[in-house]
Amino acid sequence: MSKSIPKNKTIEEILADLDENNPEYVTDWIIIELDSDPKSSSRARGTVVNGKQLFYEKKEDKRYKHLLTELLDIEFSDILEDGELIEGPIVLNMNLFKIPPKYIWEDERLLYLISKDILRPTTKPDFDNYGKIVCDVMNKKFIKDDSQIIQGNIGKYFILPDESPRIEIQLTFRLKKIVG
């Protein structure tokens, strides 16, 4: 008979129980704020050359992934040794703060709704495409594989005129304790 996890436990509580039973591991988290305008992952492009189908990424996607990689390198350098990858279950929470259309900044009532998190982006790109580009960047560079993400939450928000566009990422994961 398999042991089931009670449905009323949060992921953090389950990970804490795992820590208790496996003292060589510790649950850790990192909160990363990337000063970057959120961009989503676009579909792979394809072309036919000499009868063979080739797929490629758009140049702007490559540049954005390179920027994200540089920003994440700095953040992860404090918790990961060179070449070390996070293994095991990961919980991902991400908030994206985007520039609203110009007409919104000209209307005080709409700015008020933004300040109360009532007015939020409901247009494309879809929320999961934002998560995909961040997961693609972390894959095999900071985490073993993005299939390790067992739970995720992505929120889209508009910024106010005095704020900058940004991406906030929180990862909860388990690391081996360093003894000594």
How many individual helices? 5
Structural class: alpha+beta
Helix content: 25-40%
* SS elements, strand count: 6
Mean pLDDT: 83
CATH class: Alpha Beta
Structure description:
The N and C termini lie far apart (40 Å). The chain contains five helices and six strands, in the order H-E-E-E-H-E-H-H-H-E-E. The chain is 29% helix and 28% strand. With 180 residues, the protein is an alpha+beta fold. It has helices spanning 11-21, 59-76, 102-105, 108-115, 127-138, and strands spanning 25-34, 45-49, 52-56, 90-98, 149-158, 166-176. It is globular, with a radius of gyration of 20 Å. Residues 1-5 have low confidence and may be disordered. The protein has one domain: Holliday junction resolvase RusA (60s Ribosomal Protein L30, Chain: A), CATH 3.30.1330.70. Strand 2 and strand 3 form a beta hairpin.
